[in-house]
Structures are given as C-alpha cells and as structure tokens.
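Priority: medium. Attachment 1 of 2:
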C-alpha cells in the first residue's frame, strides 16, 4: 500500500498544475486564506505524512488529497486559473 501511495503522490506532485498545490499556502501573501479554509493541506505535507508513517491506510491519504482540492474550490472562484486546474 505504501508503494502505491508513494506513486500516487509523486504523480500528483509532478503534474503541470502541481506548483499551486505542492507547498502550504503562504498566508503572508494571502492573509484571508485561513478565514475561508479551516484545514489547510498541500501535497508536500501529504508526502511528509506518508514518509513518516502517519497514514495507516491509503484511505487516510485520499482524504487529505481531496482536502487539497476542496480547499482550492472553497477559496478560488470559478473561472480562475487555480480553480480550473
């Protein structure tokens, strides 16, 4: 399971749009982000959790991956570059 999870996160981190999602959102540049997004998540954090053994199942990682994108949809408006990626 861990090998499959590593392959999944690696592919996501190499995707063309991944720079938007690879690192935590910089709240000094986007100060209102935490007003809208209660539980931030990014692909680097997911990878770190995977490598450190914090996930006990692929399902847990899947929940965090979905959180990355639901946060994107919550913060960004339809039609924006981030939303459409």
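Attachment 2 of 2:
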């Amino acid at each position: 399971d861990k090998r499959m999870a590593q392959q999944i996160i690696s592919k996501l981190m190499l995707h063309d749009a991944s720079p938007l999602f690879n690192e935590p959102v910089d709240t000094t540049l986007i100060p209102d982000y935490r007003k809208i997004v209660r539980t931030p998540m990014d692909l680097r954090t997911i990878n770190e959790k995977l490598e450190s053994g914090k996930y006990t199942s692929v399902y847990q990682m899947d929940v965090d991956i979905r959180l990355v994108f639901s946060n994107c949809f919550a913060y960004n408006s339809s039609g924006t570059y981030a939303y459409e990626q």
